[in-house]
Amino acid sequence: MSDFRRSLPDWLPRALAVLVVLTLLAPVFGWAAGAVGYAEPLENAAEETGAVDSAQPVDIALLPDYSVAGLGSAAGTFVSAVVGTALTLVVALGIGRLLGSDPNAE
Amino acid sequence: MHIPDGYVDITIAVLFGALSVAILGVAARRVGREVPEHRAPLLGVVAAGIFAAQMLNWPIPGGTSAHFVGGAFAAILLGPHLGALCVATVVAIQALVFGDGGLIVLGANVFNMAIVEVYVGYGIYRLVAPYGEFRAVFAAGWLGITAGALTAGLQLGLSSAFEYQLLTTLSIMGVGHLVLGLIEGGITAVVYRYLAEARPDLRPTADREVSPS
Q1: By CA distance, what is A81's nearest residue in B?
Q2: Sequence spans of domains, chain A
């Protein structure tokens, strides 16, 4: 397993600290976006053409709209940020290792 | 820029889904040839950082806003093929776990944010790089997101829910993100410059310059 340890870069702790800071910022930005009435161009285009009612939610989403059932908005956003960031880290790491260690890749 | 289900006609969704699968397939094969194993942690951290940064909606009072997408950022830091896989991972998790962007339309969202923004952003970076790296990274973030918004506008404007108002969707998406893209370009350039100065060995070209093995 020394290969694995050697492949862990020295910048990793600092990078993980940055990720933690970003997840802590998520509920703050979530609150601010709500306060200013955040709307993206996509939503503007949907309103302009009357498409808004056609939108369908994703039923299988465990944390719909970055919220957690039973938790308040800020706490739900924070938990979503932590879960999503950690999950993305693990999945992307896995993809990276799969691709990087594939000796048969052409 | 995450399109929900119901906005885009199924034929358009399937077409762009197939395109995305084909392009990501090629990207994965290219990556297998080019990327040394020690870049896997970088891929993980960049993907996680992009996920977290995308949750930070810019609170612009009273107006239209957006959030960082990071396609050009991933392309410049990881190379375009790994960058595309990186952003595709983020977009897939957003749809599957958080319902941010639809499932039927997932391929179209991947096309806009993980393919168009990534490859157009990277192309612009390479094109402008001789005139200064900082401005190249800025232009890549700025015009990359604008290009992704235009393909999103195209998909919407060719769909019945938007009453085939192609000019309306293209102009709202294109102009909106052309203006907001200045922020994307600024963030991309500032974060990249910090990383390039703090850790020059992480730059994509560094592997060729100083090969560790």
Answers
A1: B52
A2: 11-100
ipTM surpasses cut 0.90 = yes
Interchain contact, B55 vs A26, CB within 8 Å: yes
User: Are residues B43 and A92 in contact, defined by beta-carbon separation less than 8 angstroms?
Assistant: yes
The model's pTM: 0.93
The CATH number linked to B87 is 1.10.1760.20
For CA atoms A38, B189, B71, B123, the dihedral sign is positive
Token representation of residue A80: 């979503």
Give every CB contact of residue B185 below 8 A, 6+ residues apart in sequence: B137, B138, B139, B140, B141, B142, B143
Residue B72: alpha-carbon gap to chain centroid = 6
Instruction: Sort out which chain B residues have CB atoms less than 8 A from A79's CB and list them.
Output: none
Residue of B nearest to A105 (CA): B32
**pLDDT digits 0-9 by tens, A66-97:** 999 999 999 999 999 999 999 999 999 999 88
| Residue B65 domain flag | yes
β-bridge mates for residue B149, sequence order: none
What range does the domain containing B137 cover?
Answer: 10-205
Q: What is the DSSP string of B99-150?
A: --S-STTHHHHHIIIIIIHHHHHHHHHHHHGGG-HHHHHHHHHHHHHHHHHH
Is B112 contained in some domain? yes
Q: Does residue B147 sit within a domain?
A: yes
Task: Give me the phi and psi of B159, to 5 degrees please.
Answer: -115, 150
Q: Residues B135-191: pLDDT tens digits?
A: 999 999 999 999 999 999 999 999 999 999 999 999 999 999 999 999 999 999 999
